[in-house]
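If you are new to this repository, start here. Below is one unmodified record pulled from the training split, so you can see the exact layout before writing a loader.
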Amino acid sequence: MQPLGLSGAAEAVYRTLLRRPGLGTAALQQLVQGLDEPLEAMLEALLRRGLVRRGGEAMNGWQATAPEVAIELLLMERQAELNEARRVLPELQADLARDSSATSLGDVQIVPADPNEQLHAYLKLFEQAQHSILSFVRPPFLLAAPEPMEAARDAARKRGVRIRSILAPEVMAWDGWHAAAAQSIASGDDLRVLDGLPFKLLLVDGNAGMLPLHADDPQGPVLRLGNTAVLQSLVLLFEQHWAEAVPALEAQTSPAETGADGDAAMQELVTVLAAGANDKTAAHALGISDRTLQRRMAALIALLRAKSRFQAGWLAARLFDR
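And here is the target side for that same chain:
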């Protein structure tokens, strides 16, 4: 009867009462030896479970419940326990998704498309950072919780964590972002700007990170990675983009600030891009390095408050045609 939740000692008491119904406690104690708890307590427990009842020896004795009834009672108890386990299963799964480390899931975890779940995972990565935080920053932005996010960044800075971020040019064109970038740099962060970031990305200490599960669905689930080959490849990708990117505030330099030479340089850039030249061809045609081309592109996009390179080229062409 142990599979049904009845201990060996309790089963011995029950079987003895089946064979000798009506025994009193003292007589029963003589027949059942080696109990791991007081017999009185065991009988009271069996009584509460409906497996024995009082009767015999002038009502001071004990009798066992019929086996078919006893087994049914034990089965009902077990079923109730299983039902309770099933009831809490969704809660346990939610706790696992929220709090389990990536390592416990084979270094890969999918965070559902829920802003609160993703914010929790984002903040947890910041909290565990010890050396470095790397990120691609590009729209759309779903985590509308700037205060806890900035608090997490500030706490990381105080721990001596180096924060490097590459921003999409259109981000720098939005209201308030120039001031935010200046404040971030003043706090010790390194910010650069580069067009064509493939997706949003967060990397921590070179051994954990987050990015969209589907590049074409930035509002969907998020993939959280542990120390995998994929994550190491993403670290290399970040470093390659970092080498090509330009300092964030330098990228805000506009043609109006650079005078006639700046206007001429921008017009040349627009002309080459309008001809359909790719970056390599454009840099060669203008006689400038890839880095300088990226800086001028970022400045052009920021100046025109464009949302993309295509829109910047279209707006610039109209501007310089006037």
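Two things worth knowing about this chain: DSSP finds 13 helices and eleven strands in the chain. The chain has three domains: 1-99, 108-246, 253-321.
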